[in-house]
Amino acid sequence: MQRTIGLHNLVLVPPPEFSRQMTTHWSGKLNMPIPPTLPPVWIAMAEHFSRSAITNAFGVSTSTSVVLPLPTGSGKTQGTCVYASMQAELNAEANGLPVGIIIVTRLIEDADAIVAEVNGLAGREVAVSDHSKARATPANLFNADILVVTHTAFKDAAESFGVEDTSRWDRISQWRGGERLLIIIDEALANVVQSHKVTTQNLSSVLRGIPQELRQQFPNALRCLEILERWLRDREATSEAHTAQELWRDGSTPETLVEVRQLRQAMQGALADPLFADEAPCLVDDILQDVERMCAAHAYYLRSGNQASINGGSYLIPPSLPGAVILDATANHDVLYQLLGDRVYIAPMPDGVRDYSNVTLHVCRTASGLGKHVMDETKHLRLPRLAAHLSEQLDSDRSVFLCCHKHSAALAETFASDRLKLQVGNWGAVDGKNNWKDCDVAVIWGLPYMDQRRAINSVFATLGPLGTDWLRDNTNKQQPNLVNIIMQRHLSTSVIQAINRIGCRRVIDQLGRCPPCDVFIALPKGWQGEAILNDIKLAMPSIRVAPWDYEPDGPKVYAPRSNSANAALLTLMKQREPGLTPFPFIKRALSLGDRKIQRIREQLNDATSHLHRALSEIGVSYSHTGKGRGSKTYLLKVA
Q: Rounded CA gap, 454 and 295, in Å?
């Protein structure tokens, strides 16, 4: 293989050679056509990889990260794997300085899949993954050319690096060639802005749980918590006109901050108050961490409905961290990149890579609510109506991916049948996945609205606190101000990601088109729904838009359901947090009648049944208390 060794003496993959290798891989192993616009995209991809490695090699203290808005289906992940295998080959052959790579991906299974692909392409073990389910040995970390970690692990290491605790960062960045110079992040880092929030309720919980000896040992920290709790309680008791206010922007005194941190550490080893549930120690630690972060930086007050809270936000990637190349198909719709200013550069990509003229977007508009709460409260009526409608509208050979809110997913699964081939995913667990690539229909059911506080925190974490006047100007939910635009763009990126989980992600011809697909979506009336629709059309050029004559609410409709509720119950319990789940909740959540509930109980009492064994594998057991009419039955999930 040819190699590039410049004045920097780094061994780098030549972009033209990478493009040729990708062409062979794409048309050979993947058996997909290559539109003429793709090779230039691959050359640009390799050029940015090289530039990022060179920049990091010079040790620039504030390296700019580069975002490549490569459309879905253009080879982001496959290209990363091919490039990584080529770089490992050059590292072994050349006389220059080797280049180590960190690949950051969303999920553990994604990390393992990338490692298998890179090693398969290289013909030997050049890549390893390191995650909570399988820690790499120090020797493997040291010797591997390519290290693959999850978004969560990368953020934890970056955050530690920012507070000068470099042990976590060193674990993933150091190898036999020195510092790993190329960081490739597959998809945008989720939750890179950490939100902090305290209320009267959780402050009171912490204050009740502090043992007397710790109260005497950390008086400044105790006084801080009491002041915050009392101030919030006074605000909740008033009917004030203003619901937003900056509280501080420089943090508290060093003495108080140190004591809050020490109190948090001491509470981790203290016994929980008997009044608390089993998860109290973890809950108390989370609340104290939020107080500590806000005491170290800034905070503002926000009142939403009857709840008053003190809030803050922090950006987890420190400016001194080496720059990364971020592969994000929806980058042009994410306001966070704009807020980061010169810390991030969105690179222009060649136009015409994809053509979505084979995709029809069916749009209905509604004013009846599409958020998590409304969709959960109405799912028993809305989901049967939707299932019956889809069964009438679609041929039985169509394969449907339904993206909905988490609390609706288990019930939605019960409407899968021979007539309606339905697969279900939920918001927060669909981005970047290939599980539904063979579906030719997507139904976007409900929208994952961002909490207003998270949008404000994105601004304050990147630009710094902007004052009370700004808060009051930007917290009116009816106007297209900056906060509302951030929230709307979050919806757009989430929807575009969900749509592209199905067959439209696959290229079938030289024009970059995909197989015929249909997408059904309910959007809110008003400017927000219009903005989401415009973003979809920008992200998916040539997509056809058609009206969908449908209303989510209306008369009760019957829709056939699968004969067994077992799969839905398993889905429900996988989503549940550890603890007790009473059967009345299960009955309501899955819309099950008394007869089906009785059948489930019978299977749970049979240790040899498939349901009993499947629940046991995820740590769920059948439990009951009392006798006779006063008895209660639960499913108990352990951590």
A: 18
How far apart, in Å, do the first and last CA atoms of the chain sit?
Answer: 50
d(CA 318, CA 327): 19
Nearest one of 323, 593, 333, 313 to 456, comparing CA atoms: 313
Among 525, 542, 538, 502, CA closest to 447: 525
Name beta bridge partners: 128. Answer: 147
Parallel, antiparallel, or unpaired: how do β-strands 174-175 and 178-179 relate?
Answer: antiparallel
Residue with the two structure tokens 């290798």: 21
What pLDDT digit, counting tens, does each position of 292-316 carry? 899 888 999 998 877 789 999 999 8
Q: Is the pLDDT of residue 192 over 70?
A: yes
Which of 380, 415, 409 is CA-nearest to residue 572? 409
**Tokens at 592, concatenated:** 């099950």
- pLDDT tens readout for residues 72-88: 999 999 999 999 999 99
**What digits encode the pLDDT tens for the residues 408-422?**
998 999 899 989 999
Tokens of 241: 């006109």
CB 439 within 8 A of CB 423: yes
Q: For 365, list phi and psi in degrees, rounded to 5.
A: -115, 140
DSSP H helical ranges for 15-104: 15-27, 38-57, 76-93
Report the C-alpha gap between 539 and 516 in whole angstroms.
17
Sheet holding 182-186, edge to edge: 127-129, 146-150, 101-105, 182-186, 325-327, 65-68, 344-346
The SS3 call for residue 550 is coil
Is residue 374 within 8 A of residue 553, CB to CB? The reply is no
pLDDT value, residue 61: 56
3-state DSSP assignment of residue 395: coil
> Which of 441, 446, 466 is CA-nearest to residue 456?
466
370 three-state secondary structure: coil
Query: Pick from 14, 228, 26, 10: which is nearest to 98 by CA?
Result: 10
Rounded distance, CA 64 to CA 372, Å?
Answer: 37
Q: Which residues contact 39 (CB under 8 A, 6 or more apart)?
A: 19, 22, 23
* CA nearest neighbour of 344 among 104, 52, 58, 10: 52
Rounded to two decimals, the pTM is 0.86
CA 589, CA 583: separation in Å to the nearest integer?
A: 10
pLDDT (0 to 100) of residue 401: 98
Q: Parallel, antiparallel, or unpaired: how do β-strands 579-582 and 632-637 relate?
A: antiparallel
Predicted local distance difference test score (pLDDT) of residue 141:
95
SS (H, E, C) 557-589: CCCCCCCCCHHHHHHHHHHCCCEEEEHHHHHHH
